[in-house]
Write the structure tokens for this entry.
Amino acid sequence: MEPERRDLAEYLVDEVRQGLALDQVPSGPCDHYVLHGPSVPVSASAGDATASFDGERIRLDWNWKTEESKKSGGPRTILLPDLELVEWVPAAGLENGYLRFVVAKATATAAPKYDPHAVVLYGFKKDPLMALVAAAVVARMPHPGAPAKALPAQPPAPEPSADTPPTGGDEGDVDHDVLLRRLRELGDLHQSGILTEAEFTTAKQAVLRRFSGA
């Protein structure tokens, strides 16, 4: 394995383990995504299109490399509730890759070169950026292992203010829900570039110490 890919794999494993621990996920199959997807809006230009996602809809804008029959229909917009599957296949050797958004109403699937729901990837340097769009979309789709009829999400508990006494009895009690939200906020700030790697690590360690009661 290439050194940069090994480092990335080790980072991913650490993040998954931390997510499992913080969310107290029991052993066995998960019914939700442990890691958050890329922040939205997100956009990438590669292959024969620019793919954008704002959290609710995907937009595909074609370029000069797009097959004419595919481009003739104009830009394609796909709503998240209409999406059934996201297919990501990187280019390998002489074979082109693709990013395809399969909609629930589709009765047949054309080759990516002609499919108005697909982006053809030729194996160039910018092609892997399309994986960010794919990950952002998948993270906001229903998890395959989620119950068929999930209960509506409860609104988050309000953040405690200086005038609000701590819950749990003792003044030294730690509100784990608040700490979990703080960790997610720090992750979003780091992902968006507001916090540097060092700032994010320092802040995260401080929250984790409070979480463990140290």
